Amino acid sequence: MQNATGIHGKGLSAQAAYSLAGLCLALGLVIGYFFVGARSARSVAPAPSGSSATAPIYPGGHPKLTLEQMKQMADMQASTLLQKSKSEPKNAALQFQIAKIYQGSHQFKEAAAYFEQGLKFDPKNVAARTELASCLFYANDVDGALAQLNQALKYAPKDTNALFNLGMIKYRGKGDTVGAIAAWQQLLTTNPDLDRRPMVEQLIAEAKSAPAKK
Predict the structure, then answer these.
(1) What secondary structure letter does DSSP report for 56?
(2) Close Cβ partners of 177 (under 8 Å, ≥ 6 residues apart)
(3) What is the Cα–Cα distance from 48 to 196, expressed in whole angstroms?
(4) On the CB side of 190, how many CA atoms lie within 13 Å of its CA?
(5) Among 124, 174, 126, CA closest to 28
(6) 54 strand-pairing partners
(7) Neighbour tally for 87: CB within 10 Å
(8) What pTM was estimated for this model as a whole?
(9) Which residues of the chain fall short of a pLDDT of 50?
(10) 30-52, pLDDT tens digit by residue?
(11) Where are the beta strands (DSSP E) in 71-192?
C-alpha cells in the first residue's frame, strides 16, 4: 500500500469525509492521489454541463472559467499529443495522457473516450480503468462507472482506489448503502494496513446510519 499525504487525524466529520471522498473521485483515485487533501475538496455530485457553467475559482485568485473556455485550453494543451496519436493510434499511454488533460479540464465525456481508446490496447490497466469510471460518473453514467470498477476489480481484487470508488459511487450515485458498505469492508479486509482506515470506517458508519432509499 502506498503512503498517502494530505489530511491527517482520526474522527473526520461526515461533511469532511464526503468532501474528501468527492475530491478523490474527481481525481480518479490513481496511485499517488489516494485520499489526497491538498486541493480544495468538493462534494460528490455530477459535474455541471453546458457552456454557461463555470469551474471553481482556483487557489491564487484565478478567475472563473466556463467549461467551454476550459475545453479550448485542453484542446490547445493536447494538440501535440493528438497530432502524435494519428501516427500512433495503438499507443495506449498516449491515449491516457490525452484523457488526463481533458479530465483535468472537466471535459469528462472527451476524457472517457480517450481512456476507452487506450484500454482497447491496455485492458488490464486498472488505474486508467478506475479513472475512466470517475469520468463516466461525472458524465452522469453511473451504471457505466460501476461496470468499469467491477471490471478493474477482476484484474486487481484488492485495488484500494477501485474499491473505495466502488463504495462511493454505489452510495452517492445509487443510494445503495448495503453495496457501499460491502465495498468498503472489502477494502479494509484486503488492505489491513490502510493508512486512511479511520476515514473509511467513518464512511461505513455514516452509510449504516443513513435512511434507507425508498
Answers:
(1) P
(2) 171, 207, 208, 210, 212, 213
(3) 29
(4) 16
(5) 126
(6) 66
(7) 8
(8) 0.70
(9) 1-59
(10) 322 333 222 222 223 333 333 33
(11) none
pLDDT of residue 211: 81
CA angle 142, 103, 101 (to 5 degrees): 160
Cα separation of 212 and 154, whole Å? 29
pLDDT of res. 4: 33
Q: Which amino acid is at 31?
A: I
Taking the C-alpha atoms of residue 201 and residue 171, their distance in angstroms, rounded to an integer, is 14
C-alpha angle with apex 67: 64 to 69, nearest 5 degrees?
A: 75
CA distances from residue 38 to 28, 33, 187 in whole angstroms, order as listed:
15, 10, 23
pLDDT of residue 48: 35
Residue 156 three-state SS: coil
Take residue 7 and report the three cell numbers written for it.
489530511
Whether residue 124 contacts residue 151, with contact meaning beta carbons closer than 8 Å, is answered with no
Relative orientation angle of helices 92-104 and 126-138, to the nearest 10 degrees: 30
Map residue 90 onto helix, strand or coil: coil
Cα separation, 12 vs 155, whole angstroms: 32
What letter does residue 64 receive in the DSSP assignment?
P
pLDDT of residue 63: 58
Determine how many CB atoms are found less than 10 A away from the CB of residue 57: 12
- What pLDDT was estimated at residue 46? 37
